[in-house]
Amino acid sequence: MLNLPKILNQGIYSNHIRSKSQNLIFDKKFQDKIISSEFISRDAKADFTYNLLLKKMQIEKNKKIQEKILLRIINFKIKQKLCSSSSLLFHDPHQDQKREKERKLKIQNLRKAENLKERLRSQNQNLKKINLIKNKINLIKKKLKKNKLDFDFDFHN
Q: Where does this protein have coiled-coil stretches (predicted)?
């Protein structure tokens, strides 16, 4: 018999997703995150799905179920090849670049927001310190007036 996993596993896929799928293959939340993520390439998602089916087939003891899973793998690979060949006709070559730019812009905006938040926090602390100093000066003025020592403080805001 031919070595089907070797034949079916042709192509370039993400090693990271492949290694993750080996460890978390049956974690449903992880599967949903991978499939629904917009930052993971289509090939990496396809590789994850392929590894998921392959792992299920290897674990399964029942031959009939193994055959069904193998048919699903073959159908999956056929659909993947059809989609990749037809998507070349309609594929926007700049789509990946646009996604990457959007992702970088989101990260940049988050960093700017964090920096602004930090600056506002430090300004707020400085204002609190200034208000404390003003209050102390006002207390000193009141004490001096009580003692009939009249000093003229000019405190500008």
A: 103-133
Q: What is the C-alpha to C-alpha distance for residues 99 and 38, in angstroms, rounded to an integer?
A: 9
For the whole model, what pTM was predicted?
0.32
CA distances from 136 to 37, 53, 131, 132 (A): 56, 73, 9, 6
Q: Which residue has the tokens 């020592």?
A: 149
CA distance 45 to 13: 9
Q: How many CA atoms lie within 13 A of 96 on its CB side?
A: 6
Instruction: Give the start-to-end residue ranges of the domains of the chain.
Output: 4-91, 104-151
For residue range 25-76, what is the model confidence (pLDDT) as tens digits? 555 666 666 666 666 666 666 777 777 777 776 777 777 777 777 777 777 7
Residues with Cβ within 8 Å of residue 99, at least 6 apart in sequence:
38, 39
